[in-house]
Amino acid sequence: MGMTAIVLGGFGNVGQQIAARLAETGDTRIEIVAIAARDHDKARKAAAKLGLDVPVIDAAEAPDHDAVLVECATYEGFRDVVEPTLRAGGHVIAISVGALGANLDLIDLTEQSGATLQIAGGTLPGLDILRAAREGEIRSVRLTSHIHPASLAKEPYIHDNGIDLGPADTTPVPIFEGSAREAARHFPRHFNVAVTLGLAGIGLDATEVRIRADGTLPGARHTLAVDSDAVQLEMHSQNFPSPRNNRTSRIVSQSILAALRRLDGGLQVGS
């Protein structure tokens, strides 16, 4: 088995979780060769705290490295981070998939340049069986997400619609019902899962999303329901918050590491 070189495209909570996990495990199959960041000094200081001594570069320099770009950016920074590598025909693993819903032309760019844009789907249940069901006829896909009210409190949608999150401390409060495309537009920092689900299944407009504010749970809970000619499915995932940032699920960085390990060849489990 070979070694997979990666450039971390951003070095906030998720990027640092990935670096810390690799340092803790001593895994030599994945090597961070550079960090692409807007604030070089801040990234260098954070890397030093983790014992990581690699070049800090601009995103435009990432294609110069023979490496997979792991996007760990913000919603606002997504395009600036991934576009140079996609334009150069490289390989990108994306986390901020909600931003892809507002930059769908990057999919066309990926196809034109021969690049690979990979969405790590480890935060959602049932994606393998959903992809299999798409080979036949899928009648409906519905995602119901319970999100802690503190994570939603600053979203403009909450204020614009006069939604009272107070009762969510003790009982789920309905927030939104609509398509995956609408969910990603109204909650771009929270609904990477909606865009991932729409792209994997029957599209952003046909995928139904329901959002509940729910302070009774330790983290985000997602319920996926699929009705197709081959399978009927209902699956739940209860995610737990990152110890570094409780607005991010711990499973996010682990899903990236799992995706990277699949690039190594050998036994592959899952479609």
Automatic annotation (TrEMBL):
Species per Swiss-Prot/TrEMBL record: Salipiger mucosus DSM 16094
SUPFAM superfamilies in the record: Glyceraldehyde-3-phosphate dehydrogenase-like, C-terminal domain (SSF55347), NAD(P)-binding Rossmann-fold domains (SSF51735)
UniProt GO MF annotations: aspartate dehydrogenase [NAD(P)+] activity; NADP binding
GO biological process terms held by the UniProt record: NAD+ biosynthetic process
InterPro entries: Asp/hSer_DH_NAD-bd, Asp_DH, L-Asp_DH, NAD(P)-bd_dom_sf
Residues of the Aspartate/homoserine dehydrogenase NAD-binding domain: 10-117
UniProt protein name: L-aspartate dehydrogenase
Xref: Pfam families: Asp_DH_C (PF01958), NAD_binding_3 (PF03447)
PANTHER family the UniProt entry points to: ASPARTATE DEHYDROGENASE DOMAIN-CONTAINING PROTEIN, L-ASPARTATE DEHYDROGENASE-RELATED
Family: Belongs to the L-aspartate dehydrogenase family.
Domain Aspartate dehydrogenase: 171-256
